[in-house]
Specification:
The complex is a heterodimer of chains A (about 300) and B (about 325).
Chain A (H helix, E strand, L loop, with lengths): L1 H16 L4 H9 L3 H23 L38 H37 L1 H16 L2 H11 L5 H28 L2 H8 L4 H37 L12 H7 L8 H29 L6
Chain B lengths: L3 E10 L7 E11 L4 E5 L6 H9 L7 E9 L2 E2 L5 H7 L4 E4 L13 H13 L3 H14 L5 H6 L7 H13 L5 E5 L7 H18 L2 E6 L2 H7 L2 E6 L2 E7 H6 L4 H8 L50 E3 L2 E3 L10 H7 L1
Parallel strand pairs in B: 3-8, 3-9, 6-7, 7-8
Antiparallel strand pairs in B: 1-2, 1-4, 4-5, 9-10, 10-12, 11-12
Main location (chain B): membrane
Subcellular location (chain B): Cell membrane
Family (chain B): Belongs to the ABC transporter superfamily.
Chain lengths: ~300, ~325
Amino acid sequence: MALGVSKKEKIDGLAESAGVSLAASAWKRLRRSPVFLTGAVIIGIFIVLSLLSPWLAPQDPSVPMLIDQVVKARNEIPPPQPGHLLGGDLQGRDFFSRLLVGSQQTLIVGVGATIIGLTGGLILGTLAGALGGWVDSIVMRVVDVMLSLPSLLLAFSIAAMFARPSQFTVILAVAIVQIPVFARLLRGSMLAQRHSDHVLAATALGVKKGAIVFRHMLPNSLSPVIVQSTLVLATAIIEAAALSFLGLGNPDDRLPEWGQMLGDVQNVFDTHPHLAAWPAICIIIVALGFTLMGETLREALDPKNRR
Amino acid sequence: MALLEVRDLTVVFQRKGEEPFHAVDGVSFDVEPGQTVGLVGESGCGKSVTSLAIMGLLPKRATKISGTVTYDGTDLLKLSDREMRDRRGRDLGMVFQDPLSSLNPVVPIGLQVTEVLERHRGMPRKEAMIEAKELLDKVGIPDPDRRLKEYPHQLSGGMRQRALIAIALACRPKLLIADEPTTALDVTIQAQILSLMKELVQDLGTALVMITHDLGVVAGLCDEVNVLYGGKVVEKAMRHKLFAEPRHPYTHGLLASIPRLDAPRGEKLTPIRGSVADNIPWTSACAFAPRCPNALDVCRAETPAEVNKLGRLLRCHNPVVPGTPAAEEVQA
């Protein structure tokens, strides 16, 4: 009897193993990687906090404290005190609340820029990789020009082109800088797919060109792009912070952003280092989280790295 | 009229600033329905290029194809890209060498089978899945329901090649081209795949062009054999005749280089000297002359003409004469 049960379980297990895709086996490996889990936990907390921040924030991030609430101190920047965990910022607004709400802006900018950059890169890379020939040459020359400029400098230039900086201009500037990275990556792996045996085999079956590109070439070319997008999330957050720091960010400081908070306190850094340290630490931790995830994802999806 | 008539097929690769390279040089052969024709030769003799040219799969740039490939009365080389695409997979099927890399790694087997059915027979997905199951069953894949959902890496090598054959035969093409279908497989699996192909060819009346370097495959499967060297057919005969009495020194050498169980112990194998890279162009000599044990002065001065005698086509100035010690060694 016991034997019968164990046999049945074995068969069930076999049946379940049917249809294990590349993604599924990569996920299996990732689940056991402590580095990936660390990154995933950081990013998980970050996303939850940023989504819930409007309700979690103890104070309104855009309203200064009333003067009678402030514990007397020698200068106008309120120090940490009961009800205001980290004190106030230059304008006397609750610093802890601003940090929390800032995570939301950071997430919007990072994800938005990555999605726009990814979309642009996918379109350009697919065009170049699928059509080849002169389309490929033109797209790749444009990409080369964009890559030859330092990415931050390019982002600044794009952001500075807009008469009125806003959150959207920051997203766009950071996104445009990422497009060539994605485009080149996808184009490279599409080209490798073009000459692969299974694409030749599909051609030999009379499969139409569109189906060859979208069913046979593109899905096989995506894994480096997926990995890159997690890494770009980190870069995008840092670059958006840099733009805000230099005053090219969203001028509306009722909705704080970490880079902007960092830029605002440049003059009081000597006397109130904590005002710069907290947003900096947040940026570093979040960027680290995305990078840890991206790197382990790269290892898991790399077919040469199979164990 | 034969199902496939290849006449004077020539493929020239021409790169800027380089000498044109004749990969295939005036190859002609016929394939009848239900017949299996072998194209045999070493790597680089032009057998794969011949098959790709028939399928219209050679890159357009820097490639010049001439001659005719008549399939069922139409010259395939004159068809537009679109017309050719409609024929591939429907009228002409192809099985490739490496079954793992010829399957799309991120698409389950089932979808790869139904893709052809949807494309050429206009079947809806559900109906195509039922047909796909029957096809996998037909090529001897056990538990087809489960296999349809699996990915190529979960199948064994033999099973992958069976799946590829199922895909190639999904639309019942009248002609199947198999480019070294057993090279990447174990010997036991090779035998299974070959007998499967033999069976299917007989059942469906499919004409089969078998491209291989393996004379064992030829002996087991082919009716007629074309031996290619340097892009030209150097000897063509029915299988029994070719094996019993190889006349071209190259064919003779190929047969002599196979280890034999009944040879005396300690006897050395007789390799063919040199390599394909030693080719000299056919223009004013025999391309095989530098490697040929029988080479005469005339072999280096004159292109041997094609001679068709007693059902055997031969291109040689100084063929192996049956009855000589060298010939008997092979026959024994």
